[in-house]
Amino acid sequence: MKSLVLFFLTLAATAAMAIEKPNIILFFTDDHGWPDIGAAGIYDDLKTPHIDQLVADGVNCTNGYVTAPQCVPSRGGLLTGRDQSRFGLETNGETLEGFNAELKIGQRLQQTGYKTLQTGKWHLGPGPEIASHGFDEVYNKNSAQPAWATFNLDGSDRDPGRDESKIYHLDACTQAATAFIDRHGENPFFLYIAYRAPHVPLDAPEKYLSRFPGKMPERRRQALAMIAAMDDGVGLVREKLEEKGLTEKTLIFFIGDNGAPLKIHKIDAPGGGPGWDGSLNEPMNGEKGMLSEGGIRVPFVAAWPGTIPGGQVYDEPVISMDVAATAVALAGLQHDEKLDGTNLVPYLSGESEGSPHDALFWRWSSQSAIREGDWKFLRGGSREYLFNIVKDPGESENLMNAHPEKTDALRARLLSWTNELSPPGFIGGEMPEVWENYFDHYLDGKTVSKKEVAKLSQPEAIQGWIARNSVIKEGEKSLRLLDPDGEKKLSPFIANNQMKVSGPFQVSVELVEPLGEALAVTWRESGEKDFGKARAVLNADEDDPNRLSGLVSTTGEVIHLRVLFPNGNAEIKSIELSDSNGKVLEQWKFQ
User: Fold this and answer.
1) Model's pTM, two decimal places?
2) What is the domain-level CATH number for residue 222?
3) Are residues 343 and 196 in the same domain?
4) Are 544 and 433 contained in the same domain?
5) Omega of the bond prior to 504 within 30 degrees of 0, cis?
6) Which of 133, 171, 248, 328 has a 20 to 30 Å separation from 214 between CA atoms?
């Protein structure tokens, strides 16, 4: 009898724990400047009533940071709860092997009965692999291209695969989130809603653009419209929570992935492609690609009605890695010492006093920084700066000479932290020229011409493809490969290192106009550090000179592919990988 009583008591305790676990929703925006929500009180052209209400019901963390000023590493740090330089994901273009081996938020929460969803931008490998990173359900869509989906937007079941829905991608993310709550609302759940906004290409439909009439830069109008679409999404998700009686059972985070890309001059170029995305960082200094405040300080809101008092402004520094540590604590899991973040709930609820962090650290390529209390020490190549970040959040006055002891202490502490990373220490040498220009303009007060910026500015990646010894731009119906100087000193090529495709497979490149010459493909396989000597030749089809095809004859798993263009100029409509039976393995359409 006693054992039976104990059994039922244990069962009841387990059930109670399951009920007490809160839902966790993480909205993650893209290239979204720190002041670009209405609640920041900086700009009055925004229309974000639902985000502003989220702030009113929760906390505006005015010193909220991310781990990197760039998409891929920022997302890697967020989802693992660890600084991404600990596992080799310091910048875009790095191998994903370290990230793949890390334990993610979703995987941790799945252990305790949570149902999990990823929707929107992933940017950490192929869509079909997202589920393996801790997500029960996936609706991976961030453009007009088909989604990778495990369920339909009406909430019905489907086999995993491509979903051809034409709905605007930001609206699709919201619909996926509300459908998921309908499907799994009886369980504790974790939603990762990664809106690709206001990141370029700027593509807001008229129903959002029409909210912002009047004279303004067109890129600003597009950004405001995309932010409004996200704001609508926040409202609809919260409405669904209210409908299900889950408002006080749900912790919501709203965080940006890095600052806005301004390209220094904020040129209002026609079209919605590469360049300024219309978002703003001022009064923070700098932009995406910098460890100045404009690159890493972002919108950071937390709300949990009934647990976290609303209407707060919280000025202590917090960072995106805190989401994972918070989720682990709320799920009843033991804190993992590998996590670099802190459970924020005791601090935001008033239970704990003081700051969640003694210091915050960053290393991104040849830049590194530390914030300790009111002070921030920043390195960029051989340049060094010391700021009182509380008195001078715009980083306008370098205080190194006035406070040499503080400079030395912070430099030593930052170096000690970087020695824990791989590779260890400060990354030496000068910064790439584009970042030198950014530091010249924002931190050293030097004039950088529009011509200099235009020459160096190009998109980091378009659908996973980057250019080397050339420039890629997104045209209306193509991916344009350009040789800007016409000198062709080095072989131009495009590359994609975000794939896992087992060979052999056929590579087919469709062009807008024929080149009159063959292309070549080289590759790197899983486990290989460098490219081998093997290559495939892509020849034009006899019936269609715009299409060039060739066989990658390896039997290994290709993780990095290069397509070499001898001429240095081309307009690419699509790239397709297919097996011997003609089944499409990967496809990129630039139309």
Assistant:
1) 0.79
2) 3.40.720.10
3) yes
4) no
5) yes
6) 171
